Amino acid sequence: MHVVSREEMRNIDQYTIAHIGLGGPVLMENAGRAVYAALEPDLKAGEQVTVVIGKGNNGGDGFVIARLLLDSEVCVSTWLVADPGKITGDAAYHMKAYLASGGKIMQVKDDQEGFRRQLEQAELIVDALLGTGVHGAPYPEYSAVISQINQSKAQVVSIDIPSGIPASGESFTHPAVIADRTLTLECPKLAQFVEHAARCFGTVHVLPIGIPRLAYRKAGVRREVRTRADVVRTLPVRDPFSHKGSHGKGLLIAGAAEMPGAAFFSAKAALRSGIGLLKVSVPDSIKPIIAGRLPETMFLSRDTISLEGLTGVAIGPGLGREHHVGLLVRRIVEESGAMPCVIDADGLFHLKNHLDLLRRRNVPAVLSPHSGEMAALMGMSVKDIESDRFTIAKMFAEKYHVYLVLKGKYTLVTAPDGRQVVNSTGNAALAKGGSGDVLTGILLAFLLQHKQMMDAACNAVYLHGAVADDLVGHTHSLLDVLATDVIDAIPPVLHRLYGDIGSR
Ligand SMILES: NC(=O)C1=CN([C@@H]2O[C@H](COP(=O)(O)OP(=O)(O)OC[C@H]3O[C@@H](n4cnc5c(N)ncnc54)[C@H](OP(=O)(O)O)[C@@H]3O)[C@@H](O)[C@H]2O)[C@@H](O)CC1
Ligand SMILES: Nc1ncnc2c1ncn2[C@@H]1O[C@H](COP(=O)(O)OP(=O)(O)O)[C@@H](O)[C@H]1O
Ligand SMILES: [K+]
């Protein structure tokens, strides 16, 4: 499933209309019908449904929905914020069809009191005020209606995007509808994954409206949401005659005297995610702790680290920030240029002044910063990163030729060629020390087993989140999931994913 900016969506619509020949009214009819079908199962006879319509094509969708609601058992009332005489194009086409079907239109400006009463009675509000075409802050008459919708006790369902939200994820301070549910048309817009805007969407359902895939290719969209089907399609399948050497010989350089846990989490997660052989390099003082709990690992002393015979390396979790550690990070990034290298946590701290090393590698490195680490790498504030994640990630990955795993609620994986994949799994149970270390281990193991690095990174992030979802869905709350729980719950989730592979 693609993720688009406002301009990309406009280009996709225009290509479909001009070159594929599906007219605007057809797409609008498809959109309205898809929304109606999504609403129908919850509609109750006699329920008060208020459709609030703006001047553009989002309002046009509203007219289709209102027309279909006329023939249902609900009591529909349709309110227009714009002057009907100013409605043009596809929206005017569907306004006429609505009126010709026996529908009535009220104008908010003509009956403010009636509108207020209507919103008081409403059980469901359909928000078709503004869609992807909005520019700047909603005009005063729209802002007033948005604030009334937000004060109402009714369930609010936004069509395509909550009205007022800039679709490309730009930061904004103006009012926007706060929806309980958003029925997104055709494909998610960037704003859905950007924190401030994302909070307005409520539950999101994406409804196809019949746009062919060719239109996306023509519009050059290279951003997607990772789905379970993508993961099932790309997980590595073991050759029955394989041996441990076939599944990667990895080295994890992690841990410090005061942070033994980080090394343990990464190592155990890598083993649980299928790595063939794992060597761990930790300070001698904590070696007994790891060895006692993870007899499957071998050890390399910090003083004699060599990459001889290895196929991949991960460096950083709990490594510490001393000068000598920084020298080690530099050396490893330089010497591991022919194999995948995951750099996380303190590894990223030390990398900050040596980013140019990344460009000299033959095999791109994989960096997995959270927003704070990304901000430090870029010399920016966390707020700046959060307000423009997609652009900043793309710029960075292309410039330094890396796979960038920018972690967060919607972890974003960006390839060196600028392709981007948004992760759809995971929850706030992962907002706890140790979660990132687990991901580092999964990343290392997956990079050594997948053919494509992008698939490895995306599948690792998906699995990590899916495990947290599984725990919270069955046995845990958002509060009590530990890093060790995530590692121990990898097997059932992988078991189910591999169960689905049989049919691929
Ligand atoms: N054929 C298609 O393309 C399909 C499109 N579809 C649907 O269309 C939506 C996009 O439609 P759109 O581009 O007409 O924009 P839309 O979001 O309705 O608003 C723009 C209108 O509002 C106005 N306006 C702008 N800023 C404003 C503000 N701050 N405050 C107040 N008003 C403001 C602006 O007028 P202006 O002020 O520029 O004169 C313009 O009239 C999309 O989200 C989807 O729902 C689907 O049906 C599938 C087929
Ligand atoms: N609210 C959230 N929703 C979904 N995933 C989250 C959330 N908070 C954190 N995560 C995930 O948990 C992990 C945390 O990583 P990180 O911050 O590096 O943790 P640590 O360094 O403490 O191990 C990341 O994979 C991140 O995407
Ligand atoms: K809307």
TrEMBL record:
Residues that coordinate or bind AMP: K407, G408, K409, Y410, T411, G436
List of residues binding K(+): N58, D127, S163
CDD domains linked: YXKO-related
Binding site for (6S)-NADPHX: 57-61, 131-137, 142, 160, 262, 318, 370, 437
Enzyme Commission identifier(s): 4.2.1.136, 5.1.99.6
Gene3D superfamilies: 3.40.1190.20, YjeF N-terminal domain
Keywords: ATP-binding, Isomerase, Lyase, Metal-binding, Multifunctional enzyme, NAD, NADP, Nucleotide-binding, Potassium
Limits of the YjeF N-terminal domain: 9-217
Catalytic reaction list: (6R)-NADPHX = (6S)-NADPHX; (6S)-NADHX + ADP = AMP + phosphate + NADH + H(+); (6R)-NADHX = (6S)-NADHX; (6S)-NADPHX + ADP = AMP + phosphate + NADPH + H(+)
Lineage top rank: taxon: Bacteria
Cofactor names: Mg(2+); K(+)
Segments forming domain YjeF C-terminal: 227-497
Binding note for cofactor: Binds 1 potassium ion per subunit.
Any Pfam family: YjeF_N
Recorded GO MF terms: ADP-dependent NAD(P)H-hydrate dehydratase activity; ATP binding; metal ion binding; NAD(P)HX epimerase activity
Gene Ontology BP terms: metabolite repair; nicotinamide nucleotide metabolic process
Subunit structure as annotated in this protein's UniProt entry: Homotetramer.
Family according to the record: Belongs to the NnrD/CARKD family.
NCBIfam families membership: yjeF_cterm, yjeF_nterm
Physiological role: Catalyzes the dehydration of the S-form of NAD(P)HX at the expense of ADP, which is converted to AMP. Together with NAD(P)HX epimerase, which catalyzes the epimerization of the S- and R-forms, the enzyme allows the repair of both epimers of NAD(P)HX, a damaged form of NAD(P)H that is a result of enzymatic or heat-dependent hydration. Catalyzes the epimerization of the S- and R-forms of NAD(P)HX, a damaged form of NAD(P)H that is a result of enzymatic or heat-dependent hydration. This is a prerequisite for the S-specific NAD(P)H-hydrate dehydratase to allow the repair of both epimers of NAD(P)HX.
Full protein name: Bifunctional NAD(P)H-hydrate repair enzyme
Species of the source: Sporolactobacillus nakayamae
Biological classification of the source: Bacteria, Bacillati, Bacillota, Bacilli, Bacillales
Gene this protein is translated from: nnrE
